[in-house]
Amino acid sequence: MMGFTFLTDKLMEDFEHYLCHFQYNHVVRQGIRSQTCISKNYSKSEVEEIVKSFKNCEFPIVFTAGSKSTIKFWDYHIGLKYGNDKTEVYIHEMLVREPLIENCTRGITMASYILMNKKFGVKRMIVPFDLEELGDCGDFLMNSDSVQFTSIIDLD
Q1: What is the distance between the alpha carbons of residues 9 and 70, in angstroms, rounded to a whole number?
Q2: Which of 107, 99, 129, 105 is nearest to 34 (CA)?
Q3: Chain centroid to CA 4
Q4: How far is the CA of 14 from the CAs of 62, 71, 73, 137, in angstroms?
Q5: Cα separations in angstroms, 130 against 25, 105, 136, 148, 150
Q6: Is residue 67 within 8 Å of 50, Cβ to Cβ?
Q7: pTM of the model
Q8: Which residues pair with 29 in a beta bridge?
Q9: Tell me: the pLDDT tens digits for 66-84?
């Protein structure tokens, strides 16, 4: 059974170890979509930088596999920061495994469902690419801007 958690100090070492040993695409890095992301294993120093950036997010969401699974972490992880105010977030970090498009879609959709919880108070998520490229991201209202390559998902 898959679930999510926020990256804590307790999970950090396992997450770092996992990122060093499994290939991921660094799709969004510090709020900017990578135009040349490739699936690769990251060095220890690269992983430390990625994890530090995740930890600095208000919502460092990592997806975990169930306790009976041999796989510790899932195929997509997303770090979100507040935007103009605390009702708006944007993707600051996003790591996905292959298949790239499907896992981007799944990660964004899962983060949207998590943030819909009223306790977070988030009403909009800004995504640094045109979601129409990805396909179905659930039943959310979206505004895509193909010129700016951004999308806004209405979570309210």
Answers
A1: 22
A2: 129
A3: 11
A4: 12, 11, 9, 29
A5: 18, 11, 12, 8, 5
A6: no
A7: 0.87
A8: 32, 93
A9: 767 677 888 999 999 999 9
